[in-house]
């Protein structure tokens, strides 16, 4: 089981929209130095929707190579085509990823049975630990707790990233899954409470820009120290909110550029952070001490 602060890593790009591999390597070292517990490569925050298949696999391979076993690497391999999800998952396994994160099939809005059969098929096709990813605000489909419980019985489906922000779902899921089934949050604003209620960690956007603080807050929550966890998390409150002031990863890439860690490029149809909201995000940075 992977535990703690897992960063949903951005994919830095050059002005021609190609992947900026030197910047990606800098980010990897930044996170390892800041005690990030695992890296999630080419998830939503990594612009998986706009990278082509070859780029997707190349980024995963690069991250695995540069991490060199120092922390786990989890590859985003979800797709709204089951066949494509299998191919991406196989590619991640071949690259040496420790696990895969599979978002629910977006846009085509499958039924709960369709979601069950999709994830079951991928799990049976590729022998690698797999984490379900439920984010209905982006996919237009909700992986219900009862479906998560069914899928948790499949041996290599090892956990779920719940990004609804609805903490009431946690108890329902916990009650029906095996004791070693991992429960991760994808909602930075409620992550501390999620962990204090029995979650095992989070896959975080905020960790891109404040990795040490997120790691320390999650570690305190995992240790049951609610006061210290909230104390550490409190300065990040505005970041948790305003890193989503425009579609992720627009704001977080802008902040990383302001920090001098990456360039300002982002791939269409995403666009750079609008000037109108830049002062709001800059104030959130100041509140967090960035």
Describe this structure in words.
This protein has an 8-stranded parallel beta barrel. The protein has 13 helices and 8 strands. The model has no long low-confidence stretch (mean pLDDT 97). Helices cover 44% and strands 13% of the residues. It has one domain (4-234): Alpha-Beta Barrel (TIM Barrel). It is globular, with a radius of gyration of 18 Å. By secondary structure, it is of the alpha/beta class.
CATH topology: TIM Barrel
Number of strands: 8
How big a fraction of the residues is strand? 5-15%
The overall average pLDDT, rounded, is: 97
The number of helical elements comes to 13
Please state how the strands of the largest beta sheet are arranged side by side: 1-2-3-4-5-6-7-8
How do the helices and strands follow one another from N- to C-terminus? EHEHEHEHEHHEHEHEHHHHH
The oligomeric status of these chains comes to single chain
Sheet bearing the most strands, described? 8 strands, parallel, barrel
CATH superfamily: Aldolase class I
The first-to-last residue Cα distance is 31 Å
The CATH class: Alpha Beta
Number of folding domains? 1
> Which second-level CATH architecture applies?
Alpha-Beta Barrel
Low-confidence stretches: none
Q: Give the CA-based shape.
A: globular
> How helical, in percent, are the residues?
40-55%
């Amino acid at each position: 089981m992977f535990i703690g602060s897992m960063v949903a890593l951005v994919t830095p790009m050059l002005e021609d929209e190609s992947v900026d591999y030197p910047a990606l390597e800098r980010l990897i070292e930044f996170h390892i130095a800041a005690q990030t517990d695992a890296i999630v490569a080419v998830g939503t925050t990594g612009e998986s929707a706009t990278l082509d298949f070859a780029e997707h696999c190349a980024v995963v391979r690069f991250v695995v190579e540069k991490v060199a076993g120092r922390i786990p690497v989890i590859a985003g391999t979800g797709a709204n085509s089951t066949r494509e999800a299998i191919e991406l998952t196989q590619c991640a396994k071949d690259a040496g990823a420790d696990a895969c994160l599979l978002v629910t099939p977006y846009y085509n809005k499958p039924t709960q049975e369709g979601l069950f059969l999709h994830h079951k098929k991928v799990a049976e096709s590729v022998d690698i630990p797999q984490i379900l990813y439920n984010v209905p605000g982006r996919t237009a489909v909700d992986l219900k707790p009862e479906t998560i419980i069914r899928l948790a019985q499949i041996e290599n489906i090892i956990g779920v990233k719940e990004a609804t922000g609805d903490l009431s779902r946690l108890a329902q899921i916990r009650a029906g899954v095996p004791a070693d089934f991992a429960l991760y949050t994808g909602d930075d604003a409620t992550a501390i409470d999620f962990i204090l209620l029995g979650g095992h960690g989070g896959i975080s956007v905020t960790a891109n820009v404040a990795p040490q603080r997120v790691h320390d807050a999650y570690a305190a929550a995992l240790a049951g120290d609610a006061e210290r966890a909230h104390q550490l998390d409190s300065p990040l409150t505005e970041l948790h909110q305003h890193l989503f002031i425009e579609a992720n990863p627009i704001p977080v890439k802008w902040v990383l550029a302001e920090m001098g860690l990456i360039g300002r490029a982002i791939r269409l149809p995403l666009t750079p952070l609008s000037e109108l909201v830049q002062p709001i995000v800059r104030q959130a940075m100041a509140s967090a001490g960035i």
